[in-house]
Design a protein that fits this description.
This protein is an all-alpha fold. It has four helices and no strands. It is elongated.
Length: about 70
């Protein structure tokens, strides 16, 4: 069974779009995200516990929202 047409239909894209990958964008995005995450991690020791708890709570909310969205798809 050919899955590519089914996957494209479910995602709402053309089959060709499944194979179009802009490596330059992906690399730049990953580098930027990785750099930002490292900067945040480096700054965390300087933050008071209340700020760390706030950040943790907010990130958990985003994770839950992301999980809910995935489950609806």
């Amino acid at each position: 069974m050919e899955l590519i047409p089914y996957i494209a239909e479910v995602l709402g894209v053309s089959e060709q779009e499944l194979f179009h990958f802009n490596i330059e964008f992906a690399t730049e995005y990953n580098y930027k995200q990785s750099k930002e995450v490292r900067e945040i991690i480096d700054l965390l020791p300087h933050a008071p516990n209340s700020i760390i708890e706030h950040i943790k709570t907010q990130l958990q909310k985003y994770k839950n929202l992301n999980d809910e969205t995935k489950n609806k798809i």
